[in-house]
Write a structure and sequence with these properties.
The chain has 229 residues and is of the alpha+beta class. It has 8 helices and 7 strands, in the order H-E-E-E-E-H-E-H-H-H-H-E-E-H-H. The chain has a single domain, classed as Class II aldolase/adducin N-terminal domain (L-fuculose-1-phosphate Aldolase, 3-Layer(aba) Sandwich), CATH 3.40.225.
């Protein structure tokens, strides 16, 4: 079932350690088949060194297993993103060092340069804190809710990542591979921003005109970065 999507999700998961975004089993990538309403996500706790397509689990939009083993514990968060953001085709969660440092400091990542603007014209938002009741209840599903809240009605391409407070980043894209690309870029942006803040505390935000130009040349109908298909 969903053989092509399972292969794509496997490749995206294996890209996480290749890019230095995960240690041990601390991350997951999923992908969705919108027509069938099914999501593929890696199995819970499987080492990347031995991961195969058999470790890709098919779940429905309620997070219930359709085919495979026990899915990632973050599955309800992924499903919440897919429900709220119909343009998303892949979701990534990591505990990557630099982005997680901002999440643990409980700070959004300010937009300080054009590398950030190539990813998003906005700061990377920080999700609100979960209440004690939310943590005690359906924790992963409520995490999905606060991630979606942080997008605040903007498009998934405008806000391609959110920091979960004291936890780590979730990022997304039009496919599992594009979601990984967003996570890689986010980690570099987080590193650059932290170093910039160390060199110049209170550094000014990138000007509106430059940020909009850099974002629009990669995204939207007027995009001209890269080669024509």
């Amino acid at each position: 079932m969903l053989d092509d999507l399972r292969e794509a999700v496997l490749a995206a998961n294996l890209a996480l350690p290749a890019h230095g975004l995960v240690a041990l089993t601390w991350g997951n990538v999923s992908g969705i088949d919108r027509e069938r309403g099914l999501v593929v996500i890696k199995a819970s706790g499987v080492p990347y060194s031995s991961m195969t397509v058999r470790d890709m689990v098919v779940v429905d939009m309620d997070g219930q297993v359709v085919e495979g083993a026990r899915p990632s514990t973050d599955t309800p968060t992924h499903v919440a993103v897919y429900r709220a953001l119909p343009e998303v085709g892949g979701v990534v969660h990591t505990h990557s060092t630099w982005a997680t440092a901002w999440a643990q400091a409980e700070r959004p990542i300010p937009i300080l340069g054009t590398t950030h603007a190539d990813l998003s014209p906005h700061e990377v938002p920080l999700a609100r804190a979960l209440t004690d009741e939310e943590v005690a209840g359906e924790y992963e599903a409520r995490t999905g809710d606060v991630v979606v809240e942080a997008v605040a009605g903007r498009s998934a391409s405008e806000v391609p990542a959110v920091l979960v407070r004291s936890h780590g980043p979730f990022a997304w894209g039009s496919s599992p591979a594009k979601a990984v690309e967003a996570a890689v870029t986010l980690e570099e942006v987080a590193r650059m921003a932290l170093l910039t803040e160390l060199l110049r505390p209170g550094s000014p935000a990138l000007g509106h005109a430059v940020r909009e130009r850099h974002y629009s040349r990669k995204h939207g109908p007027g995009a001209y970065y890269g080669q024509l298909p």
